[in-house]
Amino acid sequence: MTVRRLKTYTANTGYVYQYYFVGKRPVAPPGHAAEYIFDVSSDRKTVYPVTVILPESTLKAWATVHSRSLTDAEQYAAVKMRLFQAFDEIENLEQHDACITVDSHRLETALNALGVQ
Questions:
Q1: Terminal-to-terminal C-alpha distance of the chain
Q2: CA proximity to 108, closest of 98, 99, 117
Q3: Is 57 among the domain residues?
Q4: pLDDT tens, position by position, 87-103
Q5: Per-residue DSSP letters for the chain?
Q6: Would you state the pLDDT for residue 33?
Q7: How far apart are CA 77 and CA 74, in angstroms?
Q8: Which residue, of 13, 49, 96, 107, has the greatest Cβ tally within 10 A?
């Protein structure tokens, strides 16, 4: 049995989210993107999935500019930062299509905030 680490994030929207990482899988067609799935709750009763998509084209664009590829840990960190941005920007996240994409601008912003060059 896998024990998941339940984490908490207080968003700018006023919600306090609890979430945990469920897993990562490739998006069809293979090599197109990676899908990171989180289970999220804003009321501690209802849990719903939130998907963060990290396109391969975004990773390649970053690698071209920085002359190196991102590690798996750096990719996960950028995805998690994008999840936090969604928590901060989208009120009632559970009522929206909970599929969020990391574009090149958001990737660069997140990695800069983390000090990744």
A1: 37
A2: 117
A3: yes
A4: 999 887 777 666 799 99
A5: -PPP--EEEE-TTS-EEEEEEEEEEEETTTTSEEEEEEEEESSSS--EEEEEEEEHHHHHHHHHHHTSPPPHHHHHHHHHHHHHHHHHH-TTGGGS--EEE--HHHHHHHHHHHT--
A6: 95
A7: 5
A8: 107
Q: Is 92 part of a structural domain of the chain? A: yes
Contact in structure between 41 and 48 (CB atoms under 8 Å): yes
**Full domain range(s) for residue 103:** 7-114
Using 50, 70 and 90 to split pLDDT, how confident is the model at 1? low
Q: How many domains does the chain have?
A: 1
Amino acid at 7: K
Across 7-18, average pLDDT: 93
Whether 1 maps to a domain, the answer reads no
Q: What is the pTM of this model?
A: 0.89
